[in-house]
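dumping this here before i forget
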Amino acid sequence: MDVEKEALPFAVVIMGVSGCGKSSVGERLAGRNGMLFVEGDQLHPPRNVEKMAKGIPLTDEDRLPWLDRIGEELRAAQKASQGLVISCSALKRSYRDRLRQAADGRLAFIFLDGSRDLLLSRMQARQGHFMPASLLDSQLQTLEPPIGEPGVVAVAIDMALDDMVALACEGLRSVAVKGGDYHAG
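structure:
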């Protein structure tokens, strides 16, 4: 069920609110397909991390430099002909469009979707992460689900990790079969 190797390189953004499993799915998807994985949280400016750690929601102004750094990673991978999987909440359509523009090429999104209760229980169980569970509702309010957008695969998070990754791979193949339109025209 791996993504076809000849379809690479392209970029995949694993998106969703905090606690949905972006890092776990991203690492496994990248490893399974011989792609590089980048943890998008590590690209946040220190000021953003400090705000979130204090329970202060980020604004669009806070997120734009972070999205631009993710865009730089997408461009660098494309220039190097390296397939890339990167985690990024990408909560708003304008954020996803910004990433699509930065990629200027093949870009897909895996949207990890789950109930508030499941997300909250996962966030409360995490240790050592700067994002407090108190910010979940803010993220859910900001989220504009990517329904109907090109190159988006939705995966429910209420299953085993391997099943989530298998569905993501299957969805990516389906997106590629539809003509590989991973970018905004």
